[in-house]
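Section 5: illustrative case.
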């Protein structure tokens, strides 16, 4: 049985990735911080939901134990991520906000990847790890600096593990989404609507969680079997510099 662990599955990119992996034949074990009040989609897809906080070691251990009890882990998709609770100028950013964002986005991703990688090595059958980074890893936003720093950290986590795990037959890549319609961006919808209308995104629209999920699955299923340490940008062309 092919087991895929996906974090941040309560909504957005995590949920879309989990559902698409399930449709592709994976048995998915997902984790999210909040209770699932509507389990209909997950129950239909056979997705096992573990409620927990990625920044907490005990919760990461529970997630891994649940997945190991069901079969061999072949895929890890690190989606879980949070934005600052309050957007503040870089000169006003608090240590509390920094610790909160980094704890989930970077520390949690790092140590879950470490734990899953060791399990994959123990099994000796390779695997695929995909991290969800962000265009914010290389784009400055001075009113949410902690988020940019956390995603730049995810990019380096990707490179480090790709380097370390290549000899074990485990590929590690990242997807860098641009402006995606999720709960995280709902509060700034008017701002991004205006920027997109003004040409920020060459393809002229918001991205969807499914746009990102398709890239995730392609990096998990062997389509890019000779690719590791790479960054797949899914941003509608926003990264293009033009005159």
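Designed sequence:
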């Amino acid at each position: 049985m092919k087991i895929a662990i996906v974090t941040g599955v309560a909504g957005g990119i995590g949920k879309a990735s989990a559902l698409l992996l399930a449709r592709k034949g994976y048995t998915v074990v997902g984790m999210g911080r909040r209770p699932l009040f509507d389990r209909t989609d997950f129950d239909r897809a056979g997705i096992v939901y573990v409620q927990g906080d990625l920044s907490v070691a005990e919760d990461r251990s529970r997630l891994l134990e649940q997945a190991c009890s069901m079969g061999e882990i072949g895929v890890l998709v690190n989606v879980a991520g949070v934005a600052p609770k309050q957007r503040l100028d870089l000169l006003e950013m608090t240590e509390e906000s920094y610790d909160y964002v980094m704890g989930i986005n970077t520390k949690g991703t790092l140590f879950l990847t470490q734990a899953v990688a060791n399990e994959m090595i123990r099994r000796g059958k390779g695997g695929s790890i995909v991290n969800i980074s962000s265009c914010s890893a290389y784009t400055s936003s001075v009113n949410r600096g902690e988020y940019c720093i956390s995603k730049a950290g995810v990019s380096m986590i990707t490179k480090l593990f790709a380097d370390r795990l290549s000899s074990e037959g485990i590929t590690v890549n990242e997807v860098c989404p641009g402006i995606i319609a999720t709960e995280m961006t709902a509060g700034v919808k008017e701002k991004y609507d205006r920027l997109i209308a003004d040409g920020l995104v060459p393809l002229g629209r918001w991205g969807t969680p499914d746009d990102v999920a398709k890239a995730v699955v392609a990096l998990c299923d062997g389509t890019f079997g000779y690719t590791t340490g790479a960054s797949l940008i899914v941003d509608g062309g926003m990264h293009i510099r033009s005159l």
